[in-house]
Amino acid sequence: MYASSAVRARLATVAARRGFSTTRAQLGSPYHYAEGPRSNIPFNPLTKHFFWRYWAFMVTGFGAPFAIAVWQTYKTK
């Protein structure tokens, strides 16, 4: 009983001493991309007509299932 607790205590101190660190992202690498605000999204929210494009996309995406359901309901068999 004491041996297992001693082993756990020893492993805990080993894990606590381990230094977790990361290296700086290298911009020349094909696996690292630029970081910062708005760099992780696939569109540019700073364009002139972003507001209208965003809401057109949202209305289309949210309204399409309802429009399809209404069309299927009123469709003749």
TrEMBL record:
Coiled coil: none annotated. It is a single-pass membrane protein. The chain crosses the membrane at residues 52-71. GO terms for cellular component: mitochondrial inner membrane; respiratory chain complex IV. It is found in: Mitochondrion inner membrane. It comes from Penicillium brasilianum. Pathway: Energy metabolism; oxidative phosphorylation. Component of the cytochrome c oxidase, the last enzyme in the mitochondrial electron transport chain which drives oxidative phosphorylation. The respiratory chain contains 3 multisubunit complexes succinate dehydrogenase (complex II, CII), ubiquinol-cytochrome c oxidoreductase (cytochrome b-c1 complex, complex III, CIII) and cytochrome c oxidase (complex IV, CIV), that cooperate to transfer electrons derived from NADH and succinate to molecular oxygen, creating an electrochemical gradient over the inner membrane that drives transmembrane transport and the ATP synthase. The keyword Transmembrane helix applies. The keyword Plastid does not apply. This is Cytochrome c oxidase subunit 8, mitochondrial. Keywords: Membrane, Mitochondrion, Mitochondrion inner membrane, Transit peptide, Transmembrane, Transmembrane helix. Pfam families: COX7C.
